[in-house]
Specification:
18 helices, Rossmann fold, 48% helix, 2 domains, 10 strands, 445 residues, binds 5-phosphoarabinonic acid, single chain, five-stranded parallel β-sheet, alpha/beta
Length: 445
């Protein structure tokens, strides 16, 4: 089971200060449970893991098998909550260098619809030429421009390349039950489709088909992922005492640090496999808390890589940061430093040691240095990187986010701020229905 260690924050905030959150956090959890808080129509994620049926998982696995049987590459088209969760889990568990196309057990997963870069899309379409590829089109609203644009291009190429009949088999839609262009297209074309529940917002949707289908196509165990999340659901339940509830302690600690002027939380990893877990986490916390002119700014670094760039800022820059380190206890492979007769690089003192031992000492050394540099340090310990522990981590962050948002006094389940760029972009592109905004924006230029 993953665990949380806040000892290295206690020189900055006290246990007594953390204990003052006991009551407010209990109230926040009650509000989540009985739906009496802000944004209560978006609480479908709260007991999603424990209520997921085996039948639902088997349906997802059967669809994943169709894509596996018919594709060497599957493109996940989606943005924000409609791709980050899947990518976080897939990249955490994948062999980073297994890029071959032949004799694959599972398709390569690529991503589109999360940018509007013409070069990115052109190069992707070039790569897909003559490849047996499929598409998972994910959009809750079904109208997101980035995703719709990428899907239009991908669908056309898939149909031209593979024929309409195969395309129908290898294109899957995950969208709203009734509304949106993605739903209309899926129904008209007869694609297999999955529904994103109304009461689950994008950034809380990784344990719905939004995350589960791509993860299953990539060959990973969605039963274990859900089981892990359900375990954490229990460990963070309303009946669990404050001191024993890791999500409550995390929410309390980060909110107290924020109160003490630590405005930026940096999520830290020591393996590049967790890079997209940080991207997913940044969306979860950034979109949930950053509103009404408040909220911790969620940032991230990949170490030791970024110790050679951002490390300077973290060690000696403005003291407005704290760190949350995801520490993976046991790696999946073994590699030892070889002995070298000449020892020109001076590394023989490490000969025979595991590479991970060097990494662990870098991690410990970094923690001590940063704490000495006045950076409070929380540590989430993952026994290993597998589906079960990732499921636990996902739910831990989700429930802590809901609690934390309520403690902050905001609605953690909306994202009104993301509309501003969209209406400007539509006005600038003269989208029908935006005539007035178009005139107004042209006057500003
Ligand atoms: O968290 C959110 O709701 C957003 O980031 C969405 O996931 C993102 O904007 C994509 O929206 P949609 O799934 O409607 O295309």
């Amino acid at each position: 089971m993953i665990s949380l260690d806040i000892k290295k924050t206690l020189g900055f905030i006290s246990n007594d200060a953390i204990a003052t959150y006991k009551e407010p956090i209990h109230k926040a959890q009650e509000a989540l449970e009985n739906g009496s808080g802000k944004g209560s129509d978006f609480l479908g994620w709260l007991h999603l893991a424990s209520s997921t049926t085996q039948e639902h998982l088997e349906d997802i696995k059967a669809t994943a098998q169709v894509l596996k049987d018919n594709c060497d590459v599957v493109v996940v088209a989606g943005i924000g909550g409609s791709y980050l969760g899947a990518r976080a889990v897939i990249e955490s568990l994948s062999n980073s260098f297994d890029l071959r196309l032949e004799n694959r057990k599972n398709p390569i997963i690529l991503y589109a619809g999360h940018n509007i870069s013409e070069d990115y899309l052109f190069e992707l379409l070039e790569f897909l030429k003559e490849k047996r590829f499929g598409i998972i089109n994910i959009s809750k609203s079904g109208t997101t421009t980035e995703t719709a644009l990428a899907f239009r291009l991908l669908k056309k190429q898939c149909e031209e390349q593979r024929g309409k009949a195969i395309a129908k088999k290898v294109i899957v839609a995950i969208t709203d039950a009734n509304k949106g262009a993605a739903r209309i297209t899926a129904d008209k074309e007869g694609y297999k489709s999955f529904i994103i529940p109304d009461n689950v917002g994008g950034r809380f949707s990784v344990l719905t088909p939004v995350g589960l289908l791509p993860i299953a196509v990539a060959g990973f165990d969605i039963d274990q992922l859900i089981a892990g999340a359900a375990e954490m659901e229990k460990a963070c339940g309303l009946d669990v005492p404050f001191e024993k509830n890791p999500a409550a302690i995390y929410a309390a600690t980060r909110n107290e640090l924020y109160k003490q002027g630590k405005k930026i939380e940096i999520l830290v990893n020591f393996t590049p496999k967790l890079h997209y877990v940080s991207e997913w986490w940044k969306q979860l916390y950034g979109e949930s808390e950053g509103k009404e002119n408040k909220g911790i700014y969620p940032a991230s670094v990949d170490l030791t890589t970024d110790l050679h760039s951002m490390g300077q800022w973290i060690q000696e820059g403005e003291r407005s940061i704290f760190e949350t380190v995801i520490s993976v206890e046991k790696v999946n492979h073994e590699l030892r430093v070889p002995e070298d007769k000449e020892n020109l690089d001076g590394l023989n003192y490490l000969a025979g040691k595991r590479v991970d031992e060097v990494n662990k000492m870098a991690e410990l050394g970094t923690q001590l240095a940063h704490v000495d540099g006045d950076v409070p340090n929380l540590r989430i310990v993952m026994p290993s990187l597998n589906e079960r522990h990732l499921g636990q981590l996902i739910y831990f962050f989700e429930i802590a986010c809901g609690i934390s948002g309520y403690i902050l006094g905001v609605n953690p389940f909306n994202q009104p701020g993301v509309e501003a760029y969209k209406s400007n972009m539509f006005a600038l592109l003269n989208k029908p229905g935006y005539e007035e905004q178009s005139k107004a924006i042209q006057a500003k230029l």
